[in-house]
Design brief:
D-Maltodextrin-Binding Protein, domain 2, two-stranded antiparallel sheet, 3 domains, 22% strand, single chain, alpha/beta, 10 helices
Length: 299
């Protein structure tokens, strides 16, 4: 009996091609866009996903007006699929010498680099040990300039969560991050008649959002420091001389996140997206971008 059950499981093994298509669907959350990325018709991709659901005997997707979302079994399968695909690709690269090589010039804001880059680069390097990623850390406006000048190949940028001024769509956002006020622990913002701020460059989202929120709240403020250096801004916060704004995941453990109870106005979220420097990027750059899209939401 046990042998029959084992044979049944083997006959319904998870196919790499199905798992790769599944991973792309979960990345973009829309069958039409995923079909374009995997080079299949939408009908063929739908049949693939139906076949995968039959193999695992579980519904993997729930269709909504805005695309597809994963069910609980789908979320569990995604974890396995990413691990299986990573191991498969590493094995093929090692045994067949198909690991990609070359150099990618990648741009990323300081706060994202500190939080996300170690895991992203470590995992990518394990799959493509001969690929070199050169990292440039700058605020989003400077990265967009570098992309325009083709000084970098790919950038992780911040987008206003409620704006599509650059032509992006909701599907371009890989992850959302909440902006928060931070200060030195025990320092009360209410003791300042004029709130001292340490913010990034004037054209960055955190700077714009902080000033706009304070103006709407009628709260007086002054810019004590405007710098593209995250370490410089956090040093000023640690001194107790200013308050800052950054994404919540980037807040160092020795600093305090200040909520609206402190008398500071609420701040918006920002979206994280990728932008290429060329209309037709190199294959290695596309592979690195796909790696980020698949990995970043899980970090």
């Amino acid at each position: 009996m046990q042998g029959i059950r084992g044979a049944t499981i083997l006959s319904l093994s998870l196919d790499i091609d199905l798992l790769r298509s599944f991973a792309v669907v979960t990345e973009v959350r829309a069958l039409s866009r995923a079909a374009h990325l995997v080079g299949r018709t939408q009908s063929a991709l739908s049949q693939q996903m139906k076949r995968l659901e039959e193999i695992v005997d579980q519904p993997l997707f729930q269709r909504t007006g805005r695309g597809v979302v994963l069910t609980d079994p789908g979320e569990r399968l995604l974890i396995h699929a990413q691990r299986i695909l990573r191991a498969h690709d590493e094995a093929m690269a090692d045994l067949c010498g198909t690991g990609l090589s070359g150099t990618i010039r990648f741009g990323c804001p300081d706060d994202y680099a500190a939080v996300f880059l170690p895991a992203l680069l470590r995992q990518f390097s394990s799959q493509h040990p001969h690929a070199l990623v050169e990292v440039v850390c700058e605020p989003t406006p400077r990265l967009l300039e570098h992309l325009e000048n083709r000084a970098i190949d790919l950038a992780m940028i911040s987008l206003p969560d409620d704006s599509r001024a650059d032509g992006s769509t909701d599907n371009d956002v890989i992850r959302r991050e909440q902006l928060v006020w931070i200060g030195y622990p025990g320092l009360d913002s209410a003791q300042f008649d004029v709130l001292p701020l340490a913010l990034s460059d004037p054209d960055t989202l955190d700077h714009i959002a902080a000033c706009a929120a304070l103006r709407r709240a009628g709260r007086a403020y002054r810019i004590a420091c405007a710098s593209s250096s995250l370490s410089g801004l956090t040093a000023l916060v640690r001194s107790g001389l200013a308050f800052a704004v950054m994404t919540q995941t980037a807040v160092a453990p020795d600093l305090a996140i200040l909520n609206t109870d402190s008398g500071l106005p609420a701040l918006p979220a920002v979206g994280i997206a990728l932008k290429f420097g060329r209309e037709h990027p190199a294959h290695l750059t596309e592979i690195f971008a796909q790696h980020i899209r698949l990995t970043l939401p899980l970090l």
